[in-house]
Every structure is written in C-alpha cells, then in structure tokens.
Amino acid sequence: MNRRIKSNFDFRLMAISYKFRDFFQPRINILKEVGIKRGDYVLDYGCGPGSYIIPLIELVGKEGKIYALDSHPIAIQMIQKIVLKKQLKNVEIIHSDCKTGLPDNSIDVVLLYDVLHELNKPNEVLEEIHRVLKSNGILSVSDHHMKENEIISKVTNKGLFKLLKKGERTYNFLKENINKNWYSNK
Questions:
Q1: What is the pLDDT of residues 104-150, one digit of tens each?
Q2: CB atoms within 10 A of CB 15
C-alpha cells in the first residue's frame, strides 16, 4: 500500500480498539451502504485485523469471494487465524504494499477503509484498484482521518473514478472506463 508500517505494538493496540468499535458499530451496517450482494468478488484493500471479513462472508455467500490485502505481517497472521478458525474457503489473503496480483476486471467491489490517509503513493494504489475493478465496479472509501472534500478530490483527481453516492459513513465511487492502453502509456 506504500504506507507507513505501524510497529507491531501499535498494530495490536489498533486491533484491540477495533474490537470495541465493532461491538458498538457493527461493520455490517457500513457494508450495507455499498450494496454488496451474493456472488460478488470483494477486495478488502488494507484489511488490517479483519474486521470486515465475517460480515463480508454473510453478504457474498459461498458463491462470492473475498480477497484480504495488507502489507503488515501481523494483519496477515490475524486474517489467517480467522480463515482457519472459521474454515473459510472463499477468502484469499494477499500480502502486498500495492499490487494485488489479481486479473484485470475481476473484482466487483473494493473496500478502502481507513487506509487512504496513510498511503504514500495513493495514485499507484488507485491505479491498481481501477485495473482490477470490473467496468461497473465500485470503490467504497471511508476514512475518518480525512475531510469529505479531501477524500473526493484524492479519489477523483486522475479521472479513474467518479463519485456515485455518499452514504452515512462511506463514499462510493464508480470506475470510469478509460482507454485500454492507459496503463501501458502512463
């Protein structure tokens, strides 16, 4: 994600605070704003300790698939524990700081929650997200560290996405269709 890596202590502290947050503000309520449905392929970009994995499973069902991507080794370990404990067959873990390794136009929804403010090279990440999203794909962004105008301008400034709708806690962007040679010509 080209972001600053938290220390192991900071990451574990964050994970504990998320458990309290998730108890009082269940993640399923946020995900409902996106319109994720059965059979969708979802990329949780910057998945952290995995707060969205179980609610995502409820939404996509066995027909869908979840890709959980993070650059922090402890995040990867935490997701592996969730996958093993819950015996999740449709969750794939990606350890990366930017590139997903996923095929072009293969993802229905990308979640970019509480990550945008940490990205050192946000345009590279947004280009990768654009590449993997299907032509009608949704990028859902939520970042309480940023103001509304910052989120919208950062996501839309390169013409890759346009604001589709603003929810109570999320901003949902539609993938803009661009010239197929755009990636190789930049």
A1: 999 999 999 999 998 989 999 999 999 999 999 999 999 989 999 99
A2: 16
Record the pTM.
0.87
A 10 A CB-CB count for 73 gives: 12
Cα–Cα distances in angstroms (integers) from residue 147 to residues 55, 142, 150, 167, in the given order: 26, 10, 5, 14
Distance CA 61, CA 110 (A): 17
Q: What digits encode the pLDDT tens for the residues 26-75? A: 678 889 999 999 999 999 999 989 999 999 999 999 999 999 999 999 99
Instruction: Calculate the CA 58 to chain-centre distance.
Output: 17
Please say whether the beta carbons of 99 and 128 come within 8 A. Answer: yes
Do the Cβ atoms of 114 and 44 come closer than 8 Å? Answer: no
Cα–Cα distance between 21 and 181 in angstroms, integer? 43
Residues facing residue 41 across a β-bridge: 65
